[in-house]
Amino acid sequence: MDYFSPAQCAGYVALVLGVGAFLTRDDRRMKLLLSAESVVYGAHFLMLGNLPAAGSAGISAGRTYLSLRSRSLWLAAAAIALNIWVGLRVAHSGLGWLPIVGSCVATVGFFTLDGMRLRLVLLTSTLMWLANGYISRSIGGTVLESLIATANITTLVRMGLEKARLRAAV
Question: Distance between CA atoms of 23 and 90, rounded to whole angstroms?
């Protein structure tokens, strides 16, 4: 395996953007960084030949950005329908559906949740993308999703502690 192929290098860039996104407690900043990460991630998986993940990441970029501007359930439904359509076209195995389902789960979260509940739903999506990265032999993707899960859990703990401190102060 070439650790510095263009495909793997794109995965490393996505890694930096994704971890940065989950280290912030600001939902808007997180979504902006995740939009950028998804664009790069899509290119990464396209170069690896994983079309379900590439398509789903591309849709995720637009979906995440739109969720900054709107909480429209119609937009969420459209993103989910588009993911399913991509899945039907290019997912030739059950494993090909991992990124598709992961993106659909995240879509529900982005358009309907915020704060800790959003991050819990995104953790579920992250675990699906982690399995996809490992199966795809994506070095950056596997490290990215592992670190995102860790960063997300860390941020959830920090948010939970802050919430507990605020309750105790009242």
Answer: 33
Are the C-beta atoms of 103 and 64 separated by less than 8 Å? no
DSSP letter (8 states) at residue 91: -
Q: Is 164 exposed, middle or buried (0-12, 13-18, 19+ CB in 10 A)?
A: exposed
**Residue 100: which domain range?**
6-169
8 Å CB contact between 146 and 20: no
Tell me, yes or no, whether 1 lies in a domain: no
Helices vs. strands in the chain: H and E counts, helices first: 7, 0
Tell me 103's DSSP state.
Answer: H
pLDDT digits (tens, 9 = 90+) for 68-81: 898 899 999 999 99
Per DSSP, helices labelled H in 23-72 are 27-48, 51-69
Structure pTM? 0.86
Angle at which helix 139-169 crosses helix 27-48, to 10 degrees, equals: 170
Around Cβ 14, how many Cβ atoms within 10 Å? 26
Residues 79, 55 contacting (CB under 8 angstroms): no
- State how far the Cα of 95 lies from the Cα of 121, in Å rounded to an integer: 20
Structural domains counted in the chain: 1
CA distance 161 to 80: 33
